[in-house]
């Protein structure tokens, strides 16, 4: 699975004259930190998707917006591809470097510029860590809601690029729902302000368009996020089921009853046992599935909702429903869930974490189909996921040292994502497309839809210099992959093929 | 203010061969309703912004998506501009027809296709009225949150085109926050699905880009909206103040305390007296300003919040705080607010309703400046607005029969919108830009930002056939208007001037 170079970019991107680039950087940006020796580049060869590795041409570590602006102008002039990167925790290879491109590392932009209680927002630089925003807002009893598992390390600029999610997105939305404004630089180094401090903004909604665009439309230089008041109390219910279908159906019943939990998570038996062995969270190890349902808000409201959810769970066939009796037990219940990935990692030399989304009503059927696929490919699959919003994270267990297992795992992963699409879902919930899922985009979208994406890309970056080879596949790639929806017997807009 | 033709479109749009167009429609769509006689066209010459009127070339009333598809293909082939329209209740002239274009009326697409409680969504045709969705969902105890004042008449397709708001948007968001998916047809009649039934969707966020694009990127043919559970109870507090500044400051304090009211509305003395004379809502007619604060949710929660808000209002200097004692009084409090526009209309032969948004913290200062401008232009201004989200609706009172008053009213309106921009706000909150505020867009955005809009437009509609002359001004227009931010001494991208 080590991809050293994306063959689809061959002949598309120009070869870069490294000496010319280095000398331009030296003349125009004498105080810029530039890494070019192979031992210095090594730590940057991958992001959180470590199966894919490429050594970048150069790593640039600017500290001021003007430096970023000059870098973009130089790269634009010399036609050098640019991959921007925050903390590098992304799981889909969105920040995977290019052999023939610079890696623009934004981690030195780590200042919190303003916390405003009345406007209820925080204005920060893109390299600020997700959790650092909530920590800075805590004295005002406010916090930033989206909470990816990597929140201790991941940066807000990367969150914007990937439209990051988290356990609490069911109630509080994805990154895009929690932004007011971003400042970006275009591929030519022009500064644009997208969104506004106020709720609505006229013109096209470029803020939403930019969020989740995976570094293909510009580089984030400042982010203004909404802050929310901290909920007074949070309670967690744990429910055990003797079948995953029943647990899946219970999720739908809770939502249909008009309750919006702060978090609603599901684990199947393999995941339960792995987590219990590792964390001793107190999970029922014989259950086929458990649900963790967190209810947050004001005391009395949470109390009422707990009673209603308990009733729904029992009616849905739960064999046991437990309310965490104190804060320590609540934290323990969550610790099992949050450490489920490393816990499953202890069961198998390798695992492959998927990220797909399905409509909630499809949960029971899809869980069944995944079990069937698991038997067909003779690979174990653990299911741990954000059940409330239908965002699944099946973990495929394999041993890369056994011949053929890696390939089988990849094929099984592809089948699971296609299953998600076939029930009206999507190939990513919160990890993004990046390099990893670019082929599955061909199953997700038809030629007209991909063409609309290409036209948007061309509107911002006609030469295709920003993060090429990620997020949006070429129609050519889709035709090769064999999943292209060909319309009227022909590929539309062949002139857009250069992306 | 009667604009019969937009001189900025002269020489930009081709002349249409009406006979050729009629014959193409007749051959390819023999059963399509086509209106072409002047008396049939008259009812369509304006939308809710009735000061602007233009007779369309033809009015087309399709009933099936295939017909819309054929219309778009024919118009694309013959290079005929197309203005799509729903119920025509918009207040910024977004559906103002073109003398040399067809008006595509979508009101016959009025079927509710699906109400799904578990998925908590409704799938409807674009001509379905906003309120009809909530009515259809009521038996399931669900509703659609965005509630423009025109909700009894306005259509969901128009809501998508304008990103409509309403009294409850502070808590529940604008249209864009309440959509899951839309089906559109491109200018070439290609069908695209934007968004997904699930929370996240990979690729660029074209759903958000399309929402609020005012008919410039495509035509909506189907909409899937989110439904919310109906709140158990709603209570309204009325607070009186002896200055508008104090009322404005109280709004900020409520929000900063972490309370999110269902609605938070403000009226000044002129509006209070007008509404009281008209509706007898029980408002204190001597107050300089009142706030109406609705709190909704579960019983106990609402009870606690009412107590907290009352305390904040008193600390902010309220001279009186009243809780509506029963449902009848609650409805009466709201009736005064909801009829404030016609009530103010009784004070003056004409009035001009503005729509600007400002950051909440700027409320007291902006209200003061509006009072100063009112004195400078010798025109009364009544203030009635969604205070909680900073969305202002100043009503400028004038008499069009007195020479010069109309012009003074327009100038004053322009100054108020520029004031909104200068404090970091925007020229529209929920009414859109349309034809009305196209010049103010030049003050809102700089040349680079407008260029990004033009590039987006070109990506979807390179010939500029969809609703030309609305929403996004040409750089040429801005240069004439004198508000263009010229960068490096030149207008960028002159080749994009054709929009």
Automatic annotation (TrEMBL), chains A, B:
GO terms for cellular component: glycolate oxidase complex. The keyword Magnesium does not apply. PROSITE patterns: FAD_PCMH (PS51387). InterPro entries: FAD-bd_oxidored_4_C, FAD-bd_PCMH, FAD-bd_PCMH-like_sf, FAD-bd_PCMH_sub1, FAD-bd_PCMH_sub2, FAD-linked_Oxase-like_C, FAD-linked_OxidoTrans_Type4, GlcD. It is an enzyme of class 1 (oxidoreductase). It comes from the Bacteria. GO terms for molecular function: (S)-2-hydroxy-acid oxidase activity; FAD binding; glycolate dehydrogenase activity. Keywords: FAD, Flavoprotein, Oxidoreductase. Its cofactor is FAD. The keyword Oxidoreductase applies. Residues 52-230 form the FAD-binding PCMH-type domain. Its EC number is 1.1.99.14. PANTHER family: GLYCOLATE OXIDASE SUBUNIT GLCD. This is Glycolate oxidase subunit GlcD.
């Amino acid at each position: 699975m080590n991809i050293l170079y994306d063959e689809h970019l061959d002949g598309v991107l120009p070869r870069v004259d490294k000496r010319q680039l280095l000398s331009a950087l030296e003349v125009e940006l004498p105080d810029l930190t530039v890494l070019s020796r192979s031992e210095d580049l090594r730590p940057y060869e991958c992001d959180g998707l470590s199966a894919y590795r490429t050594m970048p041409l150069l790593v640039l570590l600017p500290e001021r917006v003007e430096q970023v602006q000059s870098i973009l102008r130089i790269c634009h002039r010399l036609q050098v591809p640019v991959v921007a990167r925050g903390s590098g925790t992304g799981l889909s290879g969105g920040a995977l470097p290019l052999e023939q491109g610079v890696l623009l590392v934004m981690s030195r932009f780590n200042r919190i510029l303003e916390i405003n209680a009345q406007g209820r927002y925080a204005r920060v630089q893109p390299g600020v860590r997700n959790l650092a925003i909530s920590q800075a807002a805590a004295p005002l009893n406010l916090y930033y809601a989206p909470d990816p598992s990597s929140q201790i390390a991941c940066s807000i600029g990367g969150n914007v690029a990937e439209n990051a999610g988290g356990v609490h997105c069911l109630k509080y939305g994805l990154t895009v729902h929690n932004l007011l404004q971003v400042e970006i630089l275009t591929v030519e180094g022009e500064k644009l302000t997208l969104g506004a401090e106020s709720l609505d903004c006229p013109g096209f909604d470029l803020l939403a368009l930019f969020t989740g665009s995976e570094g293909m439309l510009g580089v984030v230089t400042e982010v203004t996020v909404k802050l929310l008041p901290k909920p007074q109390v949070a309670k967690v219910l744990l429910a055990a089921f003797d079948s995953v279908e029943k647990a899946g159906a219970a999720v739908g019943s809770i939502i249909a009853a008009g309750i919006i939990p702060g978090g609603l998570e599901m684990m199947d038996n393999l995941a339960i046992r792995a987590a219990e062995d590792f964390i001793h969270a107190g999970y029922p190890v014989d259950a086929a599935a458990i649900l963790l349902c967190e209810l947050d808000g004001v005391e009395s409201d949470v109390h009422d909702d707990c009673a209603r959810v308990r009733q729904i769970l029992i009616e849905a066939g739960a064999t046991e429903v437990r309310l965490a009796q104190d804060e320590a037990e609540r934290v323990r219940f969550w610790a099992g869930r949050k450490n489920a990935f490393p816990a499953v990692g202890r069961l198998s030399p390798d695992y492959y974490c998927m990220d797909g989304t399905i409509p909630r009503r499809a949960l029971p059927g899809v869980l069944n189909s995944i079990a069937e696929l698991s038997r067909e490919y003779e690979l174990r699959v653990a299911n741990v996921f954000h059940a409330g919003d239908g965002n699944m994270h099946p973990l495929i267990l394999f041993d890369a040292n056994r011949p053929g297992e890696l390939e089988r795992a990849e094929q099984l992963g592809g089948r699971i994502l296609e299953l998600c699409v076939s029930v009206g879902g999507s190939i990513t919930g919160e990890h993004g497309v990046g390099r990893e899922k670019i082929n599955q985009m061909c199953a997700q979208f038809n030629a007209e839809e991909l063409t609309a994406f290409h036209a948007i890309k061309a509107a911002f970056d006609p030469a295709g210099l920003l993060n090429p080879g990620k997020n949006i596949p070429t129609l050519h790639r889709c035709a090769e992959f064999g999943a292209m929806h060909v319309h009227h017997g022909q590929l539309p807009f062949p002139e857009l093929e250069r992306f």
